[in-house]
């Protein structure tokens, strides 16, 4: 009996062998393309976050300069909001993308920014600036 | 007032024509319609205009005194008079809120509030007229402070709703803001200390007996300890809170579900308004106006409400808004509809048949 098993063993395991080969090959390829894709997404997201933070930094710096020149440039309320944005920008954990506070700080920054712009009656944007609403659907 | 012994009717006094598209909102000007001051009503429409109607002291009929146009370039969805009656705020799908000043019958746009990303759906003044709230399709609620020289500062931008916000309404006596949304919830916003820091202090949703579909409107009773809300889920809900605790500033008094009025409507309820003397009016997609009052037979677990009357075919199309005059003397109701008209109604005991009192 033993000898007959030996003869057929390689063909019996054919399916399993091919499956394993295919799996290993696919896994190897997936690892490479997954890393590449991850890198691209990371670059894109990192760029977007950096662009938005840099934009706010720039606005806050310009407003602060204007306030230094003319302390009555804006109301006390708006000055306070600008200060709050300044503080948030400083504490934003730029190099810790996995820090859970990032999305909270970004949300607060966006709300403060909208409030300041509305009070100043200005519309400040750059192409690609994130919108709070998705738009699309029409309803009343 | 006792609603048990008499039969009441809603009598059509006048049909106001002039808008060229559906009429969305209504606002009675405060302190008009009594003591010799002619009643004034504002209506806003899909025709991008606001019309101001005034009652003639001689004939008693309403006439269009002003058309506020060429400022909004899309539908005007909501309008509200400041408590002093000097300013009228109008919210539009063009993403702006305009502030109009009444200068001897001429209305001038004195300020435009920009900030919402798209359609503004509702506008409301607080009791003292020092704060203005707006909300819209961008899911946000905005609070503005009224400054001297017609300036408006944005106090806060509030995010919390996950969908289109349909209506904002300030509490009648306290600076607490209520908003209702396409996300089926009512949110309550209050200020932390004196810091411009506004937060959502309570969310009324399905888990606390709230609505299961879009909440379209809400309104308060005269004392401010009860609130009524209406929804696409075909129900009206009554909420209550401990007003004494609220006023003492002793923390936040939560709002609790008291009663649900179901089985009365079979189409979306767009509008609900509580009169000074306790009558709840509703306007719905079935073209009818219904009136409800608290019934004497209290249930163990809270007050119950009964249908006082139903006015079928109040309009030819959807009733978008119902609004009681704030003057108790005349019990006047205004309604606005997709059929492009505004109607003035008088609520009174039916002259034809009084119930026999045995």
Overview of the molecule:
The complex is a heterodimer of chains A (140) and B (358). Chain A has helices at residues 2-12, 14-69, 76-91, 101-120. Chain A contains four helices and no strands. The radius of gyration of chain A is 28 Å and the shape is rod-shaped. The longest helix of chain A has 56 residues, at 14-69. Chain A has 140 residues and is mainly α. The model of chain B has no long low-confidence stretch (mean pLDDT 92). Chain B has 358 residues and is an all-beta fold. Chain B is globular. Chain B has one helix and 28 strands. The chains are: A mainly alpha (140), B mainly beta (358). The interface between A and B is medium-sized, with 22 and 24 residues. Chain B: One of its GO terms (cellular component) is cytosolic [4Fe-4S] assembly targeting complex. Chain B: WD repeats lie at residues 16-54, 69-101, 113-146, 158-189, 208-239, 312-355.
Précis, in short:
The complex is a heterodimer of chains A (140) and B (358). With 140 residues, chain A is mainly α.
């Amino acid at each position: 009996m033993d000898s007959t098993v030996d003869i057929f063993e390689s063909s019996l395991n054919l399916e399993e062998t091919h499956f394993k080969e295919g799996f290993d090959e696919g896994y190897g390829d997936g690892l490479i393309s997954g890393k590449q894709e991850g890198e691209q997404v990371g670059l894109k997201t990192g760029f977007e976050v950096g662009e938005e933070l840099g934009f706010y930094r720039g606005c806050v710096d310009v407003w602060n300069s204007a306030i230094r020149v003319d302390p009555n440039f804006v109301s006390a309320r708006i000055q306070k909001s600008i200060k709050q944005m300044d503080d948030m920008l400083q504490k934003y954990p730029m190099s810790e993308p996995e820090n859970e506070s990032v999305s909270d700080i970004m949300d607060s920054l966006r709300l403060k920014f909208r409030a300041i712009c509305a009070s100043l009656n200005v519309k400040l944007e750059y192409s690609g600036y994130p919108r709070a609403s998705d738009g699309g659907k029409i309803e009343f | 007032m006792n609603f048990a012994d008499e039969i009441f009717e809603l009598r059509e006094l006048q049909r106001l024509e002039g808008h060229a598209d559906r009429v969305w909102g209504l606002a009675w000007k405060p302190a008009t319609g009594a003591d010799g001051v002619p009643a004034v009503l504002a209506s806003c429409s899909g025709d991008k205009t606001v019309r101001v109607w005034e009652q003639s002291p001689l004939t008693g009929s309403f006439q269009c005194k002003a058309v506020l146009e060429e400022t909004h370039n899309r539908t005007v969805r909501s309008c509200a008079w400041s408590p002093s009656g000097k300013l009228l705020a109008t919210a539009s799908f063009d993403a702006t809120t305009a502030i109009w000043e009444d200068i001897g019958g001429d209305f001038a746009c004195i300020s435009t509030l920009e900030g919402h990303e798209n359609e503004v759906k509702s506008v409301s003044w607080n009791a003292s007229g020092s704060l203005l709230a707006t909300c819209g399709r961008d899911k946000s609620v905005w609070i503005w402070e009224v400054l001297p020289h017609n300036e408006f500062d944005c106090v806060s931008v509030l995010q919390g709703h996950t969908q289109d916000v349909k209506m904002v309404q300030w509490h009648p006596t306290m600076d607490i803001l209520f908003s209702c949304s396409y996300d089926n919830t009512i949110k309550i916003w209050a200020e932390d200390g004196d810091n411009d820091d506004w937060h959502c202090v309570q969310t009324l949703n399905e888990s606390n007996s709230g609505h299961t579909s879009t909440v379209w409107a809400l309104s308060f009773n005269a004392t401010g300890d009860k609130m009524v809300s209406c929804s696409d889920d075909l129900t009206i809900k009554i909420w209550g809170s401990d007003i004494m605790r609220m006023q003492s500033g002793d923390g936040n008094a939560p709002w609790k579900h008291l009663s649900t009025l179901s089985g009365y409507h079979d189409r979306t309820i767009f509008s609900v308004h509580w009169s000074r003397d306790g009558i709840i009016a509703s306007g719905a997609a079935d073209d009818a106006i219904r009136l409800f009052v608290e019934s004497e037979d209290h249930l163990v677990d809270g007050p119950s409400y009964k249908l006082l009357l139903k006015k079928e075919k109040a309009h030819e199309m959807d009733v978008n808004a119902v609004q009681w005059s704030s003057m108790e003397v005349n019990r006047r109701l205004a309604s606005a509809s997709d059929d492009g008209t505004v109607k003035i109604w008088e609520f009174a005991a039916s002259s034809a048949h009084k119930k026999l009192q045995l």
